[in-house]
Amino acid sequence: MLYKSLFAFLMLLSFAASAQDKVTLNGYVKDSANGEELIGVSVYLPLLKAGTISNAYGFYSLTLPPGTYEIQYTYVGYAVQTVTVTLDKDVANNIELVDKAEMIDEVVISEKRVDENVVSLQMSKNTLDLDRVRKLPALFGEVDIIKNIQMLPGVITAGEGTSSFYVRGGSADQNLILIDEAPIYDPSHLFGLFSVFNADVIKDAELYKGGIPAKYGGRLSSILEVRTKDGNNKEFKVNGGIGSMASRIMIEGPLKKDKSSFIISARRSYVDLFLKAANQDNLVSFYDINAKVNLKGNNNNRFFAAFYAGRDDFKFADEFGFAWGNKTATFRWNHLFSERLFSNATIIASNFDYKLELNDPAQGFNWTSNLQELSVKYDLAYFINTNNELTFGYHLTGRRFSPGRIAPNTDGSIFEEVELQHMYALDHALYVSNQQRLSDKFTLDYGVRLSIFQNIGSSDVYTYDDPTDNLEIVRTDTIHYKRWENIKTYINVEPRIALRYMIGEGQSVKLSYNRMVQNTHLIAAGTVPVPFNTWNPSGYYLKPQLADQVAAGYFRNFRDNVYEFSAEAYYKDIKNVTDFADNADIFFNEDLSTEFRQGKAWAYGLELMLTKKEGKLTGSVGYTLSKAMRKVDGVNLDREFAANYDRRHVANIQAAYDLNARWTFGANFTFSTGRPTTLPTGKFEFQDYNPDVISERNGYRLPAFHRLDLSATLTPRKNAGRKWHGQWVFAVYNAYNRANPFTIYTRTAQNGDGDVIGDGRTKEARMIYLFPILPSVTYNFKF
Amino acid sequence: MKNIFTIILVAVVFLSCEKSVLLDLNQTQPRVIIEGLVTNQPGYQYVKVSRSSAFYHTGDAPVVEDATVIVTDDDGNEFLFIHSPGNDSDSSGYYLPAVPFTGVIGKTYSLSVVVDGENFEATDVLNPVTKIDSLSYRVDEEERKDPVDEGKFYEVLLYANEPQQTTDFYLFKFYRNDSLMVDGDTDIYYADDEALGEDIDAVPSPLYYAPGDVADVEMYSISRAGFVFYNDLQTLLTSDGGLFSQPPSNSRTNLSNGALGYFQTSALEKRRITIKE
Question: How does DSSP classify residue A6?
């Protein structure tokens, strides 16, 4: 299979080589105001009815027969630019597009937008419209990328106040979350109230739910690619915001005008300051720092370095504390080998760690855990001709997992130092993919990704009498593997196919199939992962998870592409989905491998979405009908059960309305079927305790979830000659004060003071709900 | 670590509210519940047999008064347990040895309970327990400032040696003036020795005492199965419903045939101290 595909690609390459009588037009597309590269700009030649879109680095390349062409550059929110170019040799044409918001009102530009949603080959992908996201209400006024991802069709959330999301029946750890190509292992602040993405600095956020291109891999269900701004290379700018929960500041500017720029942004919460002011010893805080510098000397060589660091810190009266955080660094070099061969070399480092601390003279300890990753990626795009674009590359990632170390933090502590052994993994991926335009109507993308995963030493692997017996653990042997020695290798071939067929003006159907492989597994048995969950590589016991997904979609644009409609159906089949035995001990367990249970999962659904992209009123309406099931031997008496995040109906509405230059209004509405949960079927007495009797996993559904949020943004009239621009954002979260279920737990009946009441044997169920009606005010500024 | 979920929940929900809700729950057949204890001290041996009830059942659980309860050791000695020998209503469902006996360290004990013709069995090893070297007490200054119970701010400290060459599991019980005390209705005091050093010095009790109180500390050895049972029970009692923690599930037990509960054999070490001002 693999060799055949490779052969086909070599054939294609030789075709391309014979096409030497053609010339190439290429360049970067930028925003005229700040020099930011624009991603996904349509570059279209009406004469040939052909074109391309700018890639993730703002670069495009078109190889054409010599001649004179009219070329249209179009991008949502920007004025269309039409350029006439005479191509008798290779031409580099960097284009600057003008943001409509920056335009003087009197200038009216007639335009016909391209129907990107329909024409593009990619299906099952959502790009967040960040301009609109900023107009929508946000919890405590903190604009949050992930909370908006959770509103997309095909995406399910476990409840408000969490930063995890579940894509097309996949669990939360099956999403690859990238910031400037570096993975974020836990995207939560304050256990999920906010995400780690500071919206000020975000340039672009895309979620791939299906038809995932061959350049991405490593997780089964989705890729969330978040890219930060490069920094204004025309002038210095300062942006900031003062919110009820956190404040933000961002500074950007040229290092050398038009050539090089920097951006630095920071956000910090100040709940702890309030607590301190209230004379409380408890401390709760988080921060994020993003920084980037770039050097865009010329079109042939561009360099970028990006950093992110974020951390949460909780302290309870100097007695107990915990902290966690992500740090990432990305160094990128874009190089043009020729007009048609674009390359991107990237070195990525990522670190996630957490810490738990108990301060006590007799029982004090520090508990630490981390995961470190270093990757080298080399991606190439070869723009063969207007009909073929070949992408290929090699990714190598090394990971070191340090699941836990407990050390006493006082001399008198009863604890001694214990450390779980480290695990190491090497992950190679080779991919090649060609996007081919077969006719005016037909476009095809076919590719393959080869994943070679190695779990390596040094490590001790225990063998067991019965590797699935977690009650009486009997180790039979210990196999020692030396440093770099191979413990287990898993080789998987991941085919990726997508096609698009135009069935008429502004209408298309798309089909895709992808196989995804996941070799890094989150050890989380709850519904919502917490930062204290560790990750494990595939290895001696744990097999790679495999997902096959087919998706079909119908795409249609109306009214000059002002409205976009899409309907997509999918079926996903997952093998070796990781689950855990009932009562699994997943924290600090040397015999963790006895707790794993791998089984199968399947999910299917229908997603409908209508988006209005232009005009005073913009927004989207989405509906998802879906089902997600699991069957895992050793769980729920081997019977199939609904996944924790299975919700039958989900509907989301997001709308923004620009009343006039001063006022903008926004609204979110969300509805979803209740999440399944495990509840008791009885109770019993044991000593003085009253435990529940449990008989079925996820056999009960929480009440339905629905909520309305509203916002109003006031932009006071600009004072001519003044650089300062201010903006007030007023928001109301949960406008009709619905008590939405977060979880239900049971306890012995108690009164309001927490004292057991009655005979001490009567039980009650308690529902926790998070946010009542919550107003917030945020002040944003820039100068 | 189990309690981390409770703490997380507290942290997440500093803005949250909660309320009681009435659930429309599925009902299943009642399960047989067995609670058995054999120790190396006289007077501690008992077996309680009852049944599970509906979640919203009020009052005591239905007890089983006509079970056949027999404990045997690995030498073949049989100890018959008879239902409520004193015949008082408090001990309904409790079975006591017909002839008093004490367990012996190192022996394996088997329990057989027959209820309505169905046989439920369990075995457990009676492991040794380390000695409590001493108890002492001191004032907890934080607690003195703001005591939960008026006047109670002394904590009892425990001193012992943890044998490092063996793998041991412990269960603790704390008494105040002869009453078993639990801080909250869900706390179980149990430990493994995985991260414990040899010197167990000045480990404080989970509850506070007033001057004049008599404090008793009991330390039970339990088997690995016992540790697993209590650990699972603690997880179940403090479950957040499976949001951050794993979905609730029944404790693993050494009992056969679907009975819930546990048959425990323990060596028991007791110490007493009277708190003086």
Answer: H
For B229, list phi and psi in degrees, rounded to 5.
-60, -50
pTM of the entire structure? 0.91
Residues of A in contact with B194 (CB under 8 A): 418
Q: Establish if A583 touches chain B: CB-CB under 8 angstroms.
A: yes
* Residue A23 Cα to chain centre, angstroms: 38
The segments of chain A whose pLDDT lies below 70 read 1-20, 101-114, 274-280, 719-720
| A458 prior amide bond cis, ω within 30 | yes
User: Binning pLDDT at 50, 70 and 90, where does residue B130 land?
Assistant: very high
Predicted confidence (pLDDT) per residue in B62-114, tens digit: 999 999 999 999 999 999 999 988 878 788 999 999 999 999 999 999 999 99
Q: Burial of A21 by CB count in 10 Å (0-12 exposed, 13-18 middle, 19+ buried)?
A: exposed
A71's CB contacts (< 8 A; 6+ apart) are: A25, A43, A44, A45, A82, A83, A84, A85, A93
Q: What is the 3-state secondary structure (H, E, C) of chain B?
A: CCCHHHHHHHHHHHHCEEEEECCCCCCCCCCEEEEEEEECCCCCCEEEEEECECCCCCCCCCECCCCEEEEEECCCCEEEEEECCCCCHHHCCEEEECCCCCCCCCCEEEEEEEECCEEEEEEEECCCCCCEEEEEEEECHHHHHCCCCCCCCEEEEEEEECCCCCCCEEEEEEEECCEEECCCCCCCEEEECCCECCEEEEEEEEEEECCCCEEEEEEEEECHHHHHHHHHHHHHHCCCCCCCCCCCCCCCCCCCCCCEEEEEEECEEEEEEECCC
Q: Where does residue A590 rank: exposed (0-12), middle (13-18), buried (19+ CB within 10 A)?
A: middle
Report the candidate in B188, B169, B182 with the shortest Cα–Cα distance to residue B251: B188
Over the stretch B21-39, which tens digit does the pLDDT of each residue have? 998 888 789 999 999 999 9
Residues 257-296 of A with CB under 8 A from B: 284
- Report the largest interatomic distance among the alpha carbons of chain A, rounded to a whole angstrom: 93
> What's the pLDDT at A298?
82
pLDDT score of A275: 66
Count of other CB atoms within 10 angstroms of residue B270: 13
B3 pLDDT exceeds 60?
no
Q: What is the per-residue pLDDT for B15?
A: 61
pLDDT: which is higher, B255 or B5? B255
| pLDDT value at residue B4 | 54
In this prediction, residue A17 carries a pLDDT of: 47
Tell me the shortest Cα–Cα distance from B188 to chain A, in angstroms. Answer: 9
pLDDT score recorded for residue A77: 79
Contacts of A191 in chain B (CB under 8 A): 8, 11-12, 244
pLDDT score recorded for residue A193: 87
Mutation target among B20, B249, B253 for the A interface, most CBs of A within 10 A: B249
Looking at per-residue pLDDT, the higher value among B104 and B245 belongs to: B104
Q: How far apart are CA A733 and CA A729, in angstroms?
A: 13
What lies within 8 Å, CB to CB, of A137 at 6+ separation is: A666, A667, A668, A709, A710, A711, A731, A732, A733
At residue A103, the pLDDT reads 60
Structure tokens at A220: 């089964």
Rg over alpha carbons for chain B, rounded to the nearest Å, is 20
Tokens of A202: 């975000």
Q: Is B50 close to A684, i.e. CB distance below 8 A?
A: yes
CA-closest candidate to residue A490, choices A535, A442, A546: A546
pLDDT of residue A658: 92
pLDDT of residue B5: 54
Interface A-B, measured as beta-carbon pairs within 8 A, has a size of: 249
Q: Facing residues of B10 across strands?
A: none
Q: Work out the minimum CA distance from B149 to partner chain A, whole angstroms.
A: 13
User: Between B57, B197, B248, which is nearest A416 by CB?
Assistant: B197
